């Protein structure tokens, strides 16, 4: 199986653009900008920004749901059903509290870990068996912050965290072509040892 749909998770609107919860959007934006002629455009029927592109010679859809995070499954489910994309051909890119800034991990399946975007996607796809690219943002406790989690994810990362998150996005972008070729084991190994 190769990846045919790459979903970046975030919240729409300028007030959320720079917040930790939008790390998935940041990766997909960077990916789209790196591909010739690739432009995310609003697609009303999917309530999302969408682009069809070619990565490693394979047709791949990029998707940024324009619902709020906890309704991301509406867009993902609608596009996957319309284009007959199986759950194991979907890669969801999201912020991860359990990983420190600078760390990125690739995995298939597993629980939502309390992430409302993943919960909704799991419900829409009817399974947890899709791929996740987890971009570490750290946890307020592990970063010695006195913030609640909900407040933390909806704020900008501190400068040093931002540069680490950007590094993890760069590392992640290098393994995307492998994922789109179906070499997910190689992609995972490269990302986890980078």
From TrEMBL:
Domain of life: Bacteria
Reactions performed catalytically: an N-acyl-L-alpha-aminoacyl-tRNA + H2O = an N-acyl-L-amino acid + a tRNA + H(+)
Keyword Hydrolase: yes
Family matches, as Pfam families: Pept_tRNA_hydro (PF01195)
Active site: 21 (proton acceptor)
Residues holding tRNA: 16, 68, 70, 116
Residues annotated as site: Discriminates between blocked and unblocked aminoacyl-tRNA: 11
Role noted for this protein: Hydrolyzes ribosome-free peptidyl-tRNAs (with 1 or more amino acids incorporated), which drop off the ribosome during protein synthesis, or as a result of ribosome stalling. Catalyzes the release of premature peptidyl moieties from peptidyl-tRNA molecules trapped in stalled 50S ribosomal subunits, and thus maintains levels of free tRNAs and 50S ribosomes.
PANTHER family: PEPTIDYL-TRNA HYDROLASE
Protein name, as recorded: Peptidyl-tRNA hydrolase
């Amino acid at each position: 199986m190769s990846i045919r749909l790459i979903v970046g998770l975030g919240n729409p609107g300028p007030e959320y653009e720079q917040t930790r919860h939008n790390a998935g959007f940041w990766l997909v934006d960077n990916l789209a900008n790196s591909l010739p002629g690739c432009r995310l455009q609003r697609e009303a029927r999917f309530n999302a920004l969408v682009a069809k592109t070619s990565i490693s010679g394979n047709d791949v859809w990029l998707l940024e749901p324009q619902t709020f995070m906890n309704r991301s499954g509406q867009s993902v489910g609608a596009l996957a059903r319309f284009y007959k994309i199986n759950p194991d051909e979907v890669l969801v890119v999201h912020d991860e509290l359990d990983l420190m800034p600078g760390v990125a991990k690739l995995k298939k399946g597993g629980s939502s870990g309390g992430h409302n975007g993943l919960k909704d996607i799991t419900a829409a796809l009817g399974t947890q068996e899709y791929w996740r690219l987890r971009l570490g943002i750290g946890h307020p406790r592990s970063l010695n912050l006195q913030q609640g989690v909900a407040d933390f994810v909806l704020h900008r990362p501190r400068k040093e965290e931002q540069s680490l998150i950007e590094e993890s996005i760069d590392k992640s972008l290098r393994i995307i072509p492998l994922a789109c070729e179906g070499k997910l084991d190689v992609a995972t190994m490269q990302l986890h040892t980078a």
